[in-house]
Write a structure and sequence with these properties.
It contains six helices and five strands. The relative contact order is 0.17. It is globular, with a radius of gyration of 14 Å. 42% of the residues lie in helices and 16% in strands. Helix 2 runs parallel beside helix 3. The protein has a single domain, classed as Response regulator (Rossmann fold). By secondary structure, it is α/β, with parallel strands linked by helices. Strands 2-1-3-4-5 form a five-stranded parallel sheet, with helices on both faces. Strand 4, helix 4 and strand 5 form a beta-alpha-beta unit. The N and C termini lie far apart (32 Å).
Amino acid sequence: MTEPGTKGSYILLAEDETTNQYVFRAILESGNYEVTIVENGQLVLEVARKRRPDIILLDMMMPVMDGYKTAAELIKDDSYDGVPILALTAQAMKGDAEKTLQAGCDDYMSKPIRRQELLDKVSTWLSRDATDWMEERRRKRSQPMTDAA
């Protein structure tokens, strides 16, 4: 695993729309990040078990397993402690950000996402000390999950 906050960090991105996959890959690779893209939350869990990512970017509306259920599963597993989970969603209505955070995501970005905004957000999260934000994750883990979707 690459030192957090450095270029070359490994990003696992869940996005089911092929145009968005192409755009996100181009943006993230332009920032010298290594990117693996999967189409649904079930694949996030499978891929993350094989290679622990430095950060996970989750589309919230996907087939098979959506981002809400995926985030809830990820935060239950302490082997992902220290791996930021960022929601990417076209859902930008009042309350949507809170819903993604309640599900287990550590931060939220609404689509469409500008190139520099995405690179800055990823860089910020990769450089953050996990002790600054893991307490909130542990609190979420200890609370009963509600159906956020």
